[in-house]
Amino acid sequence: MTVATVYNRMVLPIATDDPAADYEALTQRVSLWDVGCQRQVQVQGPDALELCQYLSARDLSQLRIGAAKYAPLCDHDGRLINDPVVLRVNEDTVWFSIADSDVLLWIRAISGERGDDVEVSEPDVSPLAVQGPSATDTVAAVFGEWVHELKFFHFRRIHHEGIPLVVCRSGWSKQSGFELFLEDGSKGDQLWDLIWAAGQPHGIRVGAPNNAERIENFLLAWGSDTDAESDPFEAAIGSYIDLGATHDFVGKNALLAKRADGPTRELKGLLIDGEPLEANPEPVGLQTPNGSYAGQTRAVVYSPRYERNLGLAIVEVPQNLPGTKLQVPTPTGWRPAIVVDLPFDL
Amino acid sequence: MTVATVYNRMVLPIATDDPAADYEALTQRVSLWDVGCQRQVQVQGPDALELCQYLSARDLSQLRIGAAKYAPLCDHDGRLINDPVVLRVNEDTVWFSIADSDVLLWIRAISGERGDDVEVSEPDVSPLAVQGPSATDTVAAVFGEWVHELKFFHFRRIHHEGIPLVVCRSGWSKQSGFELFLEDGSKGDQLWDLIWAAGQPHGIRVGAPNNAERIENFLLAWGSDTDAESDPFEAAIGSYIDLGATHDFVGKNALLAKRADGPTRELKGLLIDGEPLEANPEPVGLQTPNGSYAGQTRAVVYSPRYERNLGLAIVEVPQNLPGTKLQVPTPTGWRPAIVVDLPFDL
Do the Cβ atoms of A61 and A116 come closer than 8 Å? Predict the structure, then answer.
């Protein structure tokens, strides 16, 4: 890996010097990602489920042991502060598998004020992702044929050759695959080597969360696609918010008000004209054809699948309507772009 | 600058390729630090002061407008979660000038649960530090002679040549100096250039928070000298905790219990024998002369002032007693060390 970032105070490798090969391995074969920086916040104790239900803007009341759910977390004012996957590990234990913000402090603050009988901690759990069309065969070759039966967002907690881990059918791509939640950091090399060897017949490659693939299929990158004020409706993940829930949860009243008011801006897709653009993670201002401010890009990437430039942008109302024509600044000047719904449907 | 780290999701330059010159400029002349990553969490509104009093383990009831205080923040279980300097900016506005953790989320969680009438935000404020014996002359040459009259941990909020900023006598060194809290990020170059020009007669040098100087004088580096479970007594900043306060604050009961029980480990100084050691920020395990575990180093540095190797270490009770002989592993083998109180008094 030649490019890295810092995520939850840890190093996250994000690309090799051959992005085309990274993309090809992920979409055609199998890719192995060190995503140990995707930390878990563990909530454990008699009040764990009730607390988690109060923390999450998505209804977790039906979350069974061995199942996971994508569960946006909003603050009391309805701002999106993280978008973890929540795993029900056992009767009284839940993991929030988090994006890059200190959810541990936030949960401790709320549980402390409520006086809940829980322990909130960061356990020794480091995810390793195996993603791509051959991920299932690779993982099954290590852990057994039962892996084929595992449903999406379901997991088993096992010991394999002395390695404690959770094998979950999940991951930050739409290529199918697994996240292996290693529960003993000293056994990382051992787990890596097992998967690496099993992936050889499938052409496994070292990879990382892939920006082109995740934009083509729209998986939200919290903190990149969102800013400090984004709410889940603006961030195009409103469908995961259970405002009809009868129980109270953090931010519920604020979110009800936001939904009633309607958003003033919205994360949308952009189809950008012209030659392939260099990936640009820095926000740049968009404008209408007559030059007025229309929002800002959050990510721009050339899509190998669609063979065109895609963008994600926070677009001001009413320019968020699909079909709206906008202008995007690029290193070679302004380029025409069209607003489309997410996920892309090209 | 040739060495940098990530702090509050921003880049913090930490050293040039000439550490001796960095140290000499800071302790003999004047050093200019970009510490924009030292973010402010602003609490504003009718309930701001009452909330801050509840958040802080140090009594802030006497904090006047224009004054600052070092105010450790502990969670409900008494763990030290940050150690900001708190500035009372005006009647209903307080800034927490924070170390590297998401205090914003933590404060919003608590104020949200309490229902306080406050707004908690991260304003456009980026500190620039001017530190060293000639810092006062440098800063006074820019802003005026009144700077000489400013007492330690006091500030004035001014506009200077169109630049809005807070001029505070403070900073993360014991060489005296100022932190300039720039309130308009677009004017960073302008402010930098003013200070840089005024510092020329004094031999100003670009610098950064200096590990050798801060260890010699013991300024706590939260997150480096502390771990996830450290409490303020263990971290040698217990004198800033006002357990005698009549009001309730977050973690008060837990801290009372911890003080009654006494610590099981404590941050102490180490005097390490032998030739100058390379600075090592990675914790390494300490042992007693008979080989049993005695704690771990948190920082090791060669002190130009004392011309010997110093360490900060979390030492297990009863090895925390001053004069205790321990062994420190180094690249050239085990070295004898002696435990001393903090701050160093050599």
Answer: no
C-beta atoms of B105 and A106 within 8 A? yes
State ipTM.
0.95
Query: What is the model's pLDDT at position B86?
Result: 98
- Check if B124 contacts A (Cβ < 8 Å): no
- C-alpha A180: how far from chain center: 16
Note down the domain range covering B130.
3-38+125-214
From B214, B229, B249, the end of a domain falls on: B214
pLDDT tens for A204-247 read 999 999 999 999 999 999 999 999 999 999 999 999 999 998 99
Q: Best mutation site among A81, A103, A106, A121 for testing chain B: the one with the most B CBs within 10 Å? A: A106
B323-334: pLDDT as tens digits:
999 999 998 899
Residues B165 and B268 in one domain: no
Interface contacts A/B by beta carbons within 8 Å: 69
Which residue among A106, A122, A228 places its CB closest to the CB of B109?
A: A106
Pair (B238, B192) in one structural domain: no
Residues of chain A with Cβ-Cβ distance to B107 below 8 Å are 109
Residues A290 and A144 in one domain: no
CB contact under 8 A, B228 and A122: yes
* pLDDT score recorded for residue B335: 96
The size of chain A, in residues, is: 346
Tokens matching residue A266: 């919205």
Map residue A81 onto helix, strand or coil.
Answer: strand
pLDDT per position as a tens digit, B4-40? 999 999 999 999 999 999 999 999 999 999 999 999 9
Contact residues on chain B for A109, CB-CB shorter than 8 A: 75-76, 105-107, 109-110, 113
Does residue B345 form part of some domain?
Answer: no
Beta strands in B45-162 (DSSP E): 68-70, 73-74, 80-82, 85-90, 93-97, 119-121, 126-131, 155-160
List the CATH number of the domain containing A171. Answer: 3.30.1360.120
pLDDT at A296 over 90: yes
**pLDDT recorded at residue B278:** 87
Question: Domain check: are B17 and B133 in the same one?
Answer: yes
Q: How far apart (Å, rounded) are the C-alpha atoms in residues A256 and A237?
A: 15
Is residue B227 less than 8 Å (CB to CB) from chain A? Answer: no
Contacting residues for A230 by C-beta, under 8 A, at least 6 apart: A79, A80, A267, A314
pLDDT attached to residue A279: 81
Check CB contact of B110 with chain A, cutoff 8 Å: yes
Which residue type is seen at B130?
Answer: V
CB A330 within 8 A of CB A322: no
B157: pLDDT confidence band, cut at 50, 70 and 90?
very high
Q: Would you say residue B79 lies in a domain?
A: no
Encoded tokens for B69: 């205080």
Residues with Cβ within 8 Å of B44's Cβ and at least 6 positions away in sequence, in order, are B92, B93, B94, B118, B119, B120, B121
Q: Which residues 261-300 in chain B show a CB within 8 A of chain A?
A: none
Domain finish residue from B183, B214, B245:
B214
- Which of these, B47, B124, B60, lies nearest to B87 by C-alpha position? B60
